[in-house]
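User: Please predict structures.

Assistant: First:
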Amino acid sequence: MSAAGSGGRYLLFGAGGQLGVELARAIAPLGAVRALARRDVDVGDAAAVRAAVRAARPTVVLNAAAYTAVDAAESDAERCALVNAVAPGTIAAAAEEVGAAVVHFSTDYVFDGAARTPYRETDPTHPLGVYGATKLAGEAAVAAASTAHLTFRLGWLYATHGRNFLRTMLRLARERDELRVVSDQVGAPTWARPVAAATAQLLAVAARAPGGATGAVRGWSGVYHLTAGGETSWHGFAEAILAADPGRGAHRCRAVRAIGSDEYPSAARRPSYSVLDSGRAASALGLRLPDWRRQLALALAEGGG
């Protein structure tokens, strides 16, 4: 438990993940933070979740816990649904019981990729796989259980720690002569740190509102898209990572070859286009994330691998 800032009480689930680590750091100055990783509380255990919320008596509950193994989800649908669809509702209901606001995180994979312009929050959803379907169900569960909630849809999230595309590309660049990367899936690579910083920025504003954090969030309640500016393919992202890596002198890789999704078999279908329009978060909440290339440069400067 850390204590500082305005005196708010923050309970974070999923503190061990790539977003959770950044959130714990970002919200630490705001007040007392109870950051729970899976080893502390399994969000699939409803009784444990409710007990954690009642014990913390938070003003805000943040849920960064998620089942994110997109391919594994196809054969592990029950566990994926428990974590992504059921647990968010349990967390939101427990938060509502103690009068706390909820901040939840979802995904661009709630869309099917048929569009060719950035998706808005009002666009129809149509997930292609178990992961996206369970995340969409989690959004609905939060909205049904909480009168003061924010759900941020993120996309192509990475961090300078944990297992993610950035760190995988940096590792493989040192191990292989050539990388083969899908070029027909387009999104907006988003560093977890700016997402966490934007979340903390908004919660700081909420804490100072006349009705407190819960009142402020109640007025903002809904789904918001929050991703980096710009767009690229996985192939374009890989090329940018290798080109901007301060340690590129140690690369063994000399070529990043573009391939189609059909050349990279996977258990789950993925949207070919999942760029999100974050204009609503900017206009309604004042949240804007930097362009994906700027985020990448900053992440690599601190040692992305």
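Second:
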Amino acid sequence: MVDRSRQDFSVEGAAFAAANLLDPESFEGVCAGADALVHLAGYPAPTPAAPWQSFELNVMTSFNALAVAARLRIPRSVHASSASALGMAWAEETQMPRYVPIDDNHPLTPAEHYGLSKCFTELSAQSFVRETHQSAIVLRFPRVMTTADLEATVPLVAENPADRTSMRDLWSYIHLDDIGSSFADAVESPLEGFGRATVVAPDTLSRTPTSVLLSEHYPEVPVVRPIIGRAPAWDLESARSVLGRVPRLSWTGLPSFTSANDHTRSFS
């Protein structure tokens, strides 16, 4: 683990090193000998930093991570992109998807600096792969939620599915544990060259069928393939192809929501 300031990192089998990712020489010094580089540093949302600060940090740390991997000939780097690259999540005016389920061919139309920074992350990774012939994988994901987040949010979505916070990612989410597993899978993937995977939970934050949510709240958006039950409005084929699996953890498997009618993967 590399961080600019954290000094209390203590996980069995892991080590902490301090480095400033905006300083390539500092960053390179702690990455020598690595078999893979997983880059998660940066701002996870447009706030609280000023737009120029958030954009600069996210873009430059991603670029430096790729540059360090190239110089040190680290064979695999993995980077956090975001569903925000599509433009819907943080734009002041509501942005509609061009179609659902959203796949990797969907246009990137960011309307704010955070989503734009994630577009740069993806483009930078593709560029470095073309230049170095090494491998880089970017993971796109929506709202990352802990168990406590889900326990607080699911009842709110039931009361108001039109809440913009939930609508902006089409009621999608991913549990924090599945994010960790997805990055680990990306490190071990046999893929060569560049890869991009969309990782989203197997359902939505609502008990309402996804097709009903879409018809009520996004009636003008074309549905190009049937979405069964509560499946997400995202195409997860890229996760199967790049990572070998799709996320499996659902809020319905949490003890606080489990009922006799639930058959989704448990968190136990």
